[in-house]
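seq as requested:
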Amino acid sequence: MCVRTIPAWRRQFRQVLPRHGGQDCCWFHGGDWHVVSGLAVRLLREASSDGTEDDIEISSRMMTAARAEGLAGWAWEAFESLVYFPINVDADGYVNGRHRASAMMAAGVRKTVVQVLVLDG
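struct tokens:
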């Protein structure tokens, strides 16, 4: 698998010169995370704009809106992964989604959606 730790200098370089489009090395690099992440951020804001906090309702709204926008193929799969299998982080780091996050950082994506886990006790 080609996903690996991205050095800080490369992440900074990709912030200046982002990489759009996909590569054929693996699924994680198979499409444009800029498009998928941008759409996920926008649809999350729209889906929760009325104050709804129910994860299932928000997910349903996001998926319906993404389908209406014509999302298909790799982009649909990637979007679905962010909604149904979110990148999870807690105080110790990644719980899920490290490969997707790494691919996004390698491409220079600046924003995406994540689920922050707060553990009591």
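The helical segments are 8-16, 33-47, 55-68, 73-84, 98-107.
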